[in-house]
Amino acid sequence: MDEIFDFPWECCDALDPTSWGYNKRLPDDKYMSTDQLVDHLVDIVSKGGNLLINVGPRADGTIPEAQQERLEGIGKWLGINGEAIYGTRHWDKFGEDNLRFTSKGEKVLFTVSLDWPGEKLTIKSLKDWDKSRIKSIKLLGAEGVLKWDLTNEGLIIQCPAEKPCEHAFAFKIEQ
Q1: pLDDT band, very low/low/confident/very high, at 63 (cuts 50, 70, 90)
Q2: Strand partners, 51
Q3: Using an 8 Å Cβ cutoff, are 112 and 102 in contact?
Q4: By the 8 A CB rule, do 55 and 71 touch?
Q5: Domain 95-174, CATH homologous superfamily name and number
Q6: What is the bridge-based pairing of β-strands 136-139 and 148-150?
Q7: Do strands 9-14 and 49-54 pair parallel, antiparallel, or not at all (unpaired)?
Q8: Sign of CA dihedral 122, 144, 114, 106
Q9: Is residue 44 within 8 Å of 1, Cβ to Cβ?
């Protein structure tokens, strides 16, 4: 989907790109990676959807190790960043460049960077906001509040030196 939908919708997908069942011939590296799975989830939620992910068990009912790793990886990511997913709605726009947005009520906007932004993150979509509107900015999984500035370029957030997780990075903007 390349737009926001205001009605409830769900994306049904599989970790295996070739089948909705177990395929013993599929090499482990051909499954959707944890990074791809996290990005897929964030993208869908930013557009107002839910993700249903299929896992294809073996004939004996066991889940292949490669699939277990992906599920454990997204579980670990949600343990840190779940606040930007659970109970959220889409925002005015779903994203810009490598960023996706979700919101909680009128007071919290989450900006999820699908890749580590480096020293700073610039959110162009917020360039017209009033500085007094922003109460604080945090990176989920990191300690403390972040320094920021609002310029004609957009909201510029100073990122911490260390990443709080391995995949997408959720910035919580409280108003």
Answers
A1: very high
A2: 11
A3: yes
A4: yes
A5: Golgi alpha-mannosidase II (2.60.40.1180)
A6: unpaired
A7: parallel
A8: negative
A9: yes
> Distance between CA atoms of 128 and 55, rounded to whole angstroms?
43
DSSP annotation of 62 reads: P
Q: What b/e readout covers 31-58, taking b as 16+ CB neighbours within 10 angstroms?
A: bbbbbebbbbbbbbbbbbbebebeebee
Asked if 146 and 158 touch (Cβ cutoff 8 Å), the reply is: yes
Domain boundaries, given as residue ranges, for the chain: 9-84, 95-174
Tokens of 43: 């993208």
Per residue in 68-79, pLDDT tens?
Answer: 999 999 999 999
For the chain, give the percent of residues with pLDDT over 70. Answer: 100
Residue 37 tokens, joined: 């799975």
pTM, rounded to two decimals: 0.95
